[in-house]
Amino acid sequence: MELNIALLAGDGIGPEVIAQAVKVCDAVADKYNHKIHWRPALTGAAAIDAVGDPYPEETHAICASSDAVLFGAIGHPRFDNDPSAKVRPEQGLLKMRQKLGLFANVRPTFTFPSLIDRSPLKRERIEGTDLVFLRELTGGIYFGKRGREDDGETAFDTCTYTRKEVQRLAKKGFEMAMKRSKKLCCVDKANVLESSRLWRETVQAMEKEYPEVQVSYEFVDAVAMRLVQWPNSYDVLITENLFGDILTDEASVISGSMGLMPSASLGESIGLYEPIHGSYPQAAGKDIANPLATVLSAAMMFDDFGLFQEAEAIRDVVNRSLSEGVVTEDLADKGKSYKTSEVGNWLAKHL
Amino acid sequence: MELNIALLAGDGIGPEVIAQAVKVCDAVADKYNHKIHWRPALTGAAAIDAVGDPYPEETHAICASSDAVLFGAIGHPRFDNDPSAKVRPEQGLLKMRQKLGLFANVRPTFTFPSLIDRSPLKRERIEGTDLVFLRELTGGIYFGKRGREDDGETAFDTCTYTRKEVQRLAKKGFEMAMKRSKKLCCVDKANVLESSRLWRETVQAMEKEYPEVQVSYEFVDAVAMRLVQWPNSYDVLITENLFGDILTDEASVISGSMGLMPSASLGESIGLYEPIHGSYPQAAGKDIANPLATVLSAAMMFDDFGLFQEAEAIRDVVNRSLSEGVVTEDLADKGKSYKTSEVGNWLAKHL
Ligand SMILES: CC(C)[C@H](C(=O)O)[C@@H](O)C(=O)O
Ligand SMILES: CC(C)[C@H](C(=O)O)[C@@H](O)C(=O)O
């Protein structure tokens, strides 16, 4: 297969972890006779510095004409103190999601047996946890009308959803449930919000198309509790944009492997793959960042190309690196630690 | 002191736990020479059954003319399957909050040394946890304009906040911080929402009135993570209605004492005190429910009357009941367990 992949390294440790994912993907391509054309483009603070826009037109053109986007991380501390600044790296993220139509954010949370004791939760609570959130990513209160009234004394934001938006997200949820344990949980606040009632009635109406899927409906506050109490009781969860923002972050820390969690953002055609961690500026340039979340995001990309063997090969070599202790300092505890680039080299070599 | 207290027992185990709080309050009143006039009134499913309204006018009249409201729990399983039903117990809750002007929901999360191992989190993560959320309770997306458009195909909800609403909540937060460790965290999503930007700028402007308070600003998704990772790093947190709904529930399970957590909802004059647990219909009528959360809510009520000795006396006797094993079956593990009413009697007697 010939693949064009846009490469958005971004800020901080982004370029370093992306470089390792590239090595691993190239090794996979070599082994399975594919050819990857990497197409680097600017984003985040790096793009603001270069052209004053965190998601420039040229970058969008490259992404939109590629088969997938591999994304590092964005964000720079100089933007931290003023969340309302006109030009911010995160705006690039939102613009990109919208312009590429990436309406479904897929965020798995699972445990690595060798890392389970890093979780803040007790072992018996998380053993067997293997859940995946589908967060709606281009609608809701993130993209509704917002502004000020009364000379700035009143502020408002609007959460809007159409039935179609709910359907296309829910469809992905049902399909994912069919491939997994056939359990789907719709997370909403239907006892208060009209948009949540639309979510619930839309999903309810779709149940008959997937008679094998067992669907449950839970309120967002209850899920925020149960995720901490019994994360392993969930499988596929679907939810709207803002609830998904909060709950996927909460879910990511329970496994204790937050730094290793991959993600995908999917649209009708193109997909974007990125680690869930941020740009971690303190570690930038030190060759110490853990590249595994980015490498595992690349595995999700191969899955979505239908290249399942290739994806499995990546996951296998990642597991081997963990069990053989070829890890960056964040996972090394008292043992020997490896540089970011060394882990990347090892993975590429042992694939 | 002569106190008029509205007594809203509500549904399920509500009446049983309220009955114990009444015994304890009466014992405190006896000891410290107060007189409490209890003023029972209907709410929740019980009120829907009786008069078709979960928060009837008569109930409101009783609450509004009392010094405080002691509240049990509301909710009945027959409402569970249809979150959009026209008349639901929760609507009583929302109506009550609004009509009584209960704009600040105070929810502490703390650990009991003897119960710490019940937490889903590891001991070292929660030891010393003693935080309190102030959730705005009468504004935001709960009370904004909502509805449908396009023949029901589009649904919307509006989150609105005025500077005054933020100020009065934040004021309570700063005052509480002054009485505690002088640390305040404002939780928002100011990188996306205009209402959050109003929150942040309003709190920032208030900082100079409380120069001793160290204020931090965190995004709601980050707080959802850190609450699980290091709950003991927080002290006072202030936030808007919906974020507060999600985060206070999340926080309540980390201590492992969820069934014991009290709460207060405060307005300009009257306060309402209630356990954070629900109506637990499965246990209703069995005399097995744990009354301690309701009893501790009553302690918060005495605190707010300025009757600190009385409040301490209640907390003391609760701690003694725990260390002497006078507990309901949920806390008894392998040991002897007591009935709801027996625990209430013991507390009243040993005060
Ligand atoms: C940076 C921010 C706008 C973004 C979001 O809220 O979607 C982030 O938290 C995420 O989850 O990707
Ligand atoms: C029942 C529901 C409307 C209510 C809320 O969301 O406020 C509840 O979850 C709470 O937190 O008191």
UniProtKB/TrEMBL annotation, chains A, B:
InterPro entries: IsoCit/isopropylmalate_DH_CS (IPR019818), IsoPropMal-DH-like_dom (IPR024084), Isopropylmalate_DH (IPR004429)
UniProt source species: Muriicola jejuensis
Name used for this protein in its record: 3-isopropylmalate dehydrogenase
Family note: Belongs to the isocitrate and isopropylmalate dehydrogenases family. LeuB type 1 subfamily.
Catalytic activity: (2R,3S)-3-isopropylmalate + NAD(+) = 4-methyl-2-oxopentanoate + CO2 + NADH
Matching HAMAP family: LeuB_type1 (MF_01033)
Cofactor remark from the record: Binds 1 Mg(2+) or Mn(2+) ion per subunit.
The entry's keywords: Amino-acid biosynthesis, Branched-chain amino acid biosynthesis, Cytoplasm, Leucine biosynthesis, Magnesium, Manganese, Metal-binding, NAD, Oxidoreductase
EC number: 1.1.1.85
UniProt GO BP: L-leucine biosynthetic process
